[in-house]
Specification:
The complex is a heterotrimer of chains A (555), B (222) and C (150). Chain A is built from 23 helices and 15 strands. With 555 residues, chain A is α/β, with parallel strands linked by helices. Chain A has 4 domains: 23-128, Glutaredoxin; 158-360, NADH-ubiquinone oxidoreductase 51kDa subunit (Rossmann fold, 3-Layer(aba) Sandwich), CATH 3.40.50.11540; 370-453, Ubiquitin-like (UB roll); 467-549, NADH-ubiquinone oxidoreductase 51kDa subunit, iron-sulphur binding domain (de novo design (two linked rop proteins), Up-down Bundle). Chain A starts with 6 loop residues before the first helix and ends in a 13-residue tail after the last helix. Chain C is 46% helix and 12% strand. In chain C, strands 2-1-3-4 form a 4-stranded mixed sheet, covered by helices on one side. Classes of the chains: A alpha/beta (555), B alpha+beta (222), C alpha+beta (150).
Chain lengths: 555, 222, 150
């Protein structure tokens, strides 16, 4: 493929591509997301390819291996177009039947969704309860895309945002649009992305960097890697647009080392984007130059902290920097560096192509757009969910999630992993909103939502989360290194029935000091889950203090 | 040279741009406790004991003074109820490792810390990193380094380097607030190159062994 | 293990202290652990103090300072796996292999490690052997899985 020299060439290429594609030709999309892969979807995909080859179905049927569809609980997932017919828990032995039915325009009834209570069937994606309450602006394209093929991304309108930005907008206009859209960072803070971009743009230094934070170290958050693995070009397009607005010449994608498929797809995406002239010099004839490098974490949570992440890209130990500087002004190699998370970047192309007005029409008053949520824990339907901001948690938990597993009742909802918080079941009508959830003590964080059933021991949950952080801390500063270790010891004692009088006060002191004195966000927020539990589940903690100990400290 | 005027503990203080709050305070003879700070070394920001209260444009925040740069019109309080509480708890946490460190005992008295508040830990290193950074930044020998992360982080002498460099230096022993550097070195020597130091001493005529004194409170320059 | 490959990696990064992590990652990937003499070679070639190489190599979990077994057995201890019974799975793996977290057996058959969330939460608890994911694992099924790896 020769380089696309201009926007017109790209659009011409897209038109030719679409002209060659027959929308009526059936396509079978096999999910190869992390969960489906773990249920051996690779064997299912292989069976489809083998069967298609045996039957010589080349012109009649297409088989596509894709990224995560979302309904991880029921993998391996297969979606057949046209019609978005959803088959669940597909086994290689089901393949001939699916192919036969697809060729005849029929449906394999036994593999479609059945309501566990009523037995009612749902054939099309728009009818399946897990999907029908969602607004899948970001992840919805996944079943339509083979992540190894840039053509598939072009076919769903990919890089149209970039074309619009480079050919019809100045960098200032792009920035203004993102600010107007009030796009807030999806990585945890909810900080307005536009303001952050502006700071880096206005920094006097000419060399600037943009970074995709795809570290996703938050336990039970798995949507970023699903996006990066399933639709890498969407994030790349967002990054290039952002770089244009900010005036950055180089980008870094920082992601996990332990996902071979993710690495393969992102490498391929970067190579293809370069081949097509979407990375490199004079992109689409606009005069804008931009290149992007891939970097990997080496398996520790603190490397997701922005200044630690940048240290890691420099090749240094990922310790957060002690300086009171903003990485947007003094980041990688002290150059202005703008870092956003995967989902934030993924939102950029649609904001540019459809406009800020459209974007702000979705969501709640202060949190716009949709949010990807990793739904897991004691939930019936685990998976990746996308809903407008402001959606009540009840919709997420019951309508989409199908409620609590094994007929148990809901005890708590936990957001934000080890630095998040737990709220009790009676707050289920709270809307999904950055500020609202923070006020309740369960900030959305990156978007990992866990259900905990009636049998959950909240002290054990706190101990578990603290244990996780103790192992992930870098150990540089005293409050984080020592304070968390002390909290872990106390919580461990409590779970073992060795609680002493004064333990809760000790924990409160530790939460306070670790929170204010720690160097980086890891330590600062390490006490947050505990804080939320003291707010809502304190009696459970108090009951663990053995009164017979009588306050004597047997040390 | 830009001069910056700020307030520390009610006193108007003049400082140069680029100075830290700690430097500005020390220059005026205002004491702020530190454990990981050393004049010859780059600021580390690890022990957090030098935390102070800063009021700027109506906002109060808690910052570590060894890295926080001076700024025009900020109001610094080196003691407050909250600051004292932070220091108290941090000293208590460190005393779980080194209950007999003279430096910590002195701070414990000042901030009302209870040396037995937390369960004792096996190691008496407080991981201030003075030895590691001194060896790297001043001596440029890198005979001692950090290993591991989180609560498992510790200092570790590199035998391959230590056998050649340490016997006639030992300067880190004197700056260690807990004497752990010396203990760690002797252990390394005993395990990795026993007896070899004596031979080296014979050949090169060793300097008199230095008396190991724990670091004294940061000198107040007036 | 190929000494030539390791030397090739080190040569690629000669004189580039900023590439320390990359070099170590590649060597770890090639050799499955980082022998001390290799780290010395890295230090010399990249012009990084050995103490710093040790710091990085011991800091990150992805690096191993001891040789690994032929098969790497990993139990996910992420939050969902934990809620869905990873502790029982761990005990079973520990009982069958006789290993604790991070250990390798005398025959170098298995290295057993627990680890952070790998993002396959929907099919937890999860057992991963040599990168192959076994979802919805129960203690009863572990033995059959491990038997496949000699």
């Amino acid at each position: 493929m020769p380089k696309l020299q201009s926007a017109a060439e790209l659009e011409k290429f897209r038109a030719e591509l679409l002209a060659k594609r027959d929308p009526a030709k059936p396509c079978i999309a096999v999910c190869a997301g992390a969960a489906c892969d773990g249920m051996d979807s690779a064997a299912v995909a292989a069976a489809f390819l083998a069967e298609a080859a045996t039957q010589k179905l080349d012109g009649k049927l297409e088989i596509r291996t894709t990224g995560c569809h979302g309904y991880c609980e029921k993998g391996p997932n297969v979606v057949v177009t046209p019609g978005d017919i959803c088959y669940f828990e597909v086994q290689p032995t089901d393949v001939p039947e699916i192919i036969a039915a697809t060729l005849k325009g029929e449906v394999v009834e036994r593999l479609v969704y059945k309501d566990p209570a009523t037995g009612a069937k749902a054939v099309h994606m728009s009818e399946v309860p897990f999907y029908k309450h969602q607004t899948r602006l970001l992840i919805g394209d996944n079943p339509k895309i083979d992540p190894m093929r840039i053509d598939d991304y072009f076919a769903v309108g990919g890089y149209a945002g970039l074309v619009k930005a480079l050919t019809t907008m100045t960098p200032e206009q792009v920035l203004a649009e993102v600010k107007k859209a009030n796009l807030r960072g999806r990585g945890g803070g909810g900080f307005p992305a536009g303001s952050k971009w502006e700071t880096t743009r206005n920094a006097p230094e000419k060399t600037k960097y943009v970074i995709v934070n795809g570290h996703e170290g938050e336990s039970a958050a798995f949507m970023d890697r699903a996006m990066l693995t399933g639709n890498p070009h969407k994030i790349l397009e967002g990054l290039i647009i952002g770089a244009y607005a900010i005036g950055a010449q180089k980008g870094f994608m920082y992601t996990r080392h332990d996902m071979p498929l993710l690495e393969k797809h992102v490498r391929q995406a970067l190579a293809q984007a370069t081949e097509y002239g979407l990375l490199g010099e004079n992109i689409l004839g606009s005069g804008f130059n931009f290149e992007c490098e891939l970097h990997f974490d080496v398996g520790i949570f603190v490397s997701g902290e922005s200044s630690a992440l940048m240290r890691s890209i420099e090749g240094n130990a990922p310790e957060p920097r002690p300086k009171y500087i903003r990485t947007s002004v003094n980041g990688i190699w002290d150059k202005p560096s703008n870092l956003n998370n995967v989902e934030t970047w993924a939102n950029v192309p649609q904001i540019i192509s459809k406009g800020a007005e459209w974007f702000t029409s979705i969501g709640s008053e202060k949190s716009k757009g949709t949010k990807l949520i990793s739904l897991s824990g004691n939930v019936v339907n685990s998976g990746i969910v996308e809903v407008p901001m402001g959606t009540p948690l009840r919709t997420l938990v019951f309508d989409i999630g199908g409620g609590v597993r094994d007929g148990k009742t809901l005890k708590a909802i936990h957001f934000g992993g080890a630095m998040g918080g737990s709220i009790p079941a009676d707050l289920i009508d709270a809307p999904l909103d950055f500020d609202g959830m923070s006020k309740l003590g369960a900030p959305i964080g990156a978007g990992g939502l866990l259900l905990m059933d009636e049998d959950t021991d909240m002290i054990e949950v706190a101990r578990y989360l603290m244990d996780f952080l103790v192992n992930e801390s870098c150990g540089k500063c005293v409050p984080c290194r020592e304070g968390m270790q002390q909290m872990l010891q106390i919580l461990t004692r409590l779970t073992e029935g060795q609680g002493r009088k004064g333990d809760l006060e000790l924990l409160e002191d530790l939460i306070e000091v670790t929170g204010v004195a720690s160097l980086c966000a890891l330590g600062k927020t390490s006490g947050d889950p505990l804080k939320s539990m003291f707010r809502y589940f304190k009696p459970e903690y108090e009951s663990r203090i053995v009164s017979s100990a009588g306050g004597s400290d047997n040390k | 040279m830009t001069e910056i005027v700020l307030t520390i503990d009610g006193k108007e203080v003049k400082a140069r741009a680029g100075m830290t709050v700690l430097q500005a305070a020390q220059q005026e003879g205002i004491y702020i406790p530190t454990l990981c700070h050393h004049e010859k070394l780059e600021a580390f920001g690890g022990c957090r004991l030098c935390m102070v209260e800063v009021e700027a444009r109506g906002w109060t925040s808690y910052v570590v003074s060894c890295v926080y740069p001076v700024a025009k019109d900020i109001v610094v309080r080196t003691r407050s109820e909250k600051v004292d509480k932070i220091r108290k708890v941090l000293v208590e946490e460190l005393m779980a490792h080194a209950p007999d460190s003279p430096e910590l005992i002195r701070m414990a008295e000042e901030y009302g810390a209870d040396r037995d508040r937390f369960e004792r830990s096996a190691s008496f290193c407080i991981v201030c990193g003075l030895c590691v950074r001194y060896c790297n930044e001043v001596k440029q020998k890198n005979a001692v380094g950090f290993i591991d992360n989180g609560a498992r982080r510790e200092i570790s002498f590199i035998p391959e380097v230590a056998r050649k460099e340490c016997w006639d230096c030992q300067e880190c022993f004197a700056i260690c607030p807990t004497s752990y550097a010396q203990a760690a070195y002797l252990l390394t020597e005993a395990l990795a190159f026993p007896g070899q130091r004596k031979e080296a001493v014979k050949v090169k005529k060793a300097p008199k062994p230095k008396r190991v004194i724990p670091i004294m409170p940061a000198p107040v320059t007036t | 293990m190929s000494e030539q490959n390791i030397d090739g990696i080190i040569e690629k990064y000669r004189g580039q202290p900023g590439s320390l992590i990359h070099a170590l990652v590649e060597i770890q990937h090639e050799n499955h652990w980082l022998p001390r003499e290799v780290m010395h070679k890295v230090a010399d070639a990249l012009q990084v103090p050995f103490a710093q190489v040790m710091q990085i190599a011991s800091f990150y979990k992805a690096f191993s300072l001891t040789p690994k077994g032929r098969h790497e057995v990993h139990v996910c201890t992420g939050m969902t796996c934990h809620l869905r019974g990873a502790a029982r799975l761990r005990s079973k793996v520990e009982e069958l292999t006789g290993l604790k977290d991070g250990e390798t057996d005398a025959d170098s058959r298995f290295t057993y490690e627990t680890g952070a969330c790998l993002g396959s939460c929907s099919i937890g608890p999860e057992l991963i052997v040599d990168g192959k994911h076994y979802g919805r694992m129960t203690p009863e099924k572990v033995e059959d899985v491990l038997k496949q790896y000699e």
